[in-house]
Amino acid sequence: MKLWAGRIQGEADKRLDDFNSSLPFDCRMYKQDIGGSMAHATMLRECGILTAEECERILAGLSAILRELESGALGFDEEAEDIHTFLEQELTRRIGDAGKRLHTARSRNDQVALDLRLYLRDEAAGIMDQLRTLIGVLCGRAQGSLDVVMPGYTHMQRAQPVTFAHHLMAYAQMFLRDIGRLEDAYKRMNRCPLGCGALATTTYPINRGMTAELLGFDGPCENSMDGVSDRDFCVELCCALSLIMTHLSRFCEEIILWCSWEFRFVELSDAFSTGSSIMPQKKNPDIAELVRGKTGRVNGHLITLLTMLKGTPLAYNKDLQEDKEAIFDAVDTVKTSLEAFTPMVDTMRINRQNMRAAAAKGFINATDCADYLTKKGLPFRDAYQIVGRLVAHCIETEETLETLPLEEYQSFSDKFAEDVYDAISLDACVDGRSVLGGPAAEAVRRQIESVQAALGEDEEEEE
Ligand code: ARG
User: Fold this and answer.
1) What structural domains and CATH numbers belong to the chain?
2) Which pTM does this prediction carry?
3) Which of 7, 100, 163, 296 has its CA 20 to 30 A from that of 373?
């Protein structure tokens, strides 16, 4: 029988049921729904709305259902419209009238808003943990590659030398910000909509503060119409998830390039590579490509959520049911992506010779050569022009700045002396950039320490 049998007496068409049902995707919130109902029943008892006995029966019935769902002894009834209906009907089937009283002073509108917040709260915390693990891996790998010189690029052209450690720590910063965004979204998500009712609360003397506290919220939502219709927390979370995917995707793009035979900067471990069904020589970075590909999917969910909200008047509208598939898939996608990505990065081998060789050609030390002249007294713009001509000359004569004889240097400027070779050596270029945020080993070591400290503080706050 339908929850609404009474006003609507005719049989529902199966096509309506199929279209309307959300059980196939909201059944994953069964634990949250049961937890919310337990808190609600407890509060109703404390407020004298349910008797102690009714409350006991409800709590025992819900505990049994939870146990049986977890063990697999109980399955979801596909006829039920959604998880809320299923659990209420199952409880009533087991304990009779007391089960029917559970929905006093509550509506599915505040119930679903509650379940979703509870569910996403846990998922957000889990993703923060995954990000912490990834950042830990990046710090570890950076520690081991402080002296691995590689080309830094702008416009995909070799620009200035950096180290692999410096490059990795750039991503650590991005993922640290991602944690910050999740924490921020979490704060606003952590308000309890229970007691908002359908939209205008209830005439029963309920205690919303009590349920909020029992469920670990920072407090109740302050306006009942907002409480049932707000899905900003889904949008905010999805936005943070989109950025996580964007960061992973940029990283993946680089890893894919680095794995190519043209670069050969890294080699993925066999355990995280795939082969080709026809080309025997292939070793493919499928994980990186898939993560890059899945980014579009999460971005799509963000647009779904924003579009779902933009035209919905207050308060609850069924449009809001569309929130779940979008945000659930966004969460799942980020989780599975991180699950595969982190060990892939942890186990990839780096080829320091190739990185260094790539940095040694391509005039990556031209800025340092100009700086050399500047330190000898030339204005930077003049030095820049001289070195530009010098580079053009080298390209023509197939020389590099490292191999060009001193006499030729001196034909461009008499400021050049023997010490130019030291000044433009790759190691000097990197070591010289020891200012805050720079690629020199000591500067990157400071970055690693500060990232690790930030992770430590983050964990302390959690506890
Ligand atoms: N399945 C619904 C959802 O996901 C639950 C709330 C339904 N409320 C209602 N009045 N139809 O949004």
Assistant:
1) 14-104 (1.10.275.10), 109-358 (1.20.200.10), 360-462 (1.10.40.30)
2) 0.94
3) 163
